[in-house]
Design a protein that fits this description.
about 110 residues; globular; Gag_p24_C; Retrov_capsid_C; Retroviral nucleocapsid Gag protein p24 C-terminal domain-containing protein; Primate_lentivir_Gag_pol-like
């Protein structure tokens, strides 16, 4: 069942949630997932929307990592992969463009 928001409180459409340049990818994913959970009832639709918007609404650095990695997107959304040291190190530098993507595959094994 869909949740009704409090009177006077608006809900931002999940399609409008974008990753800000300075925000970590997982923070963006958590926010996106919460919004989708509040607005979509069907579990399969939730998963499909999360996968699609996780790529489309990521910032440019995040999109580079997502499109050029050796693994495909459903695996990328698994938190241990995104919390891999190569990803968190790049985020701490403020950019994901310098991530050593080859080393990130270690988290998948």
């Amino acid at each position: 069942m869909l949740k009704v928001t409090d009177v006077g409180k608006s809900v931002k459409a999940f399609t409008g949630i974008k990753q800000a340049k300075e925000k970590p990818y997982m923070q963006f994913i958590d926010r996106l997932e919460m919004a989708i959970d509040k607005q979509v009832e069907n579990d399969a639709a939730k998963d499909a929307l999360l996968l699609k918007l996780a790529i489309e609404n990521a910032n440019s650095d995040g999109q580079k990592v997502l499109h050029h990695g050796p693994w495909w997107i459903p695996v990328r959304l698994v938190r241990p992969v995104l919390n891999h040291p190569a990803v968190t190190e790049a985020e701490s530098r403020g950019s994901q463009q310098h991530i050593d993507v080859d080393n990130a595959t270690d988290a998948l094994e």
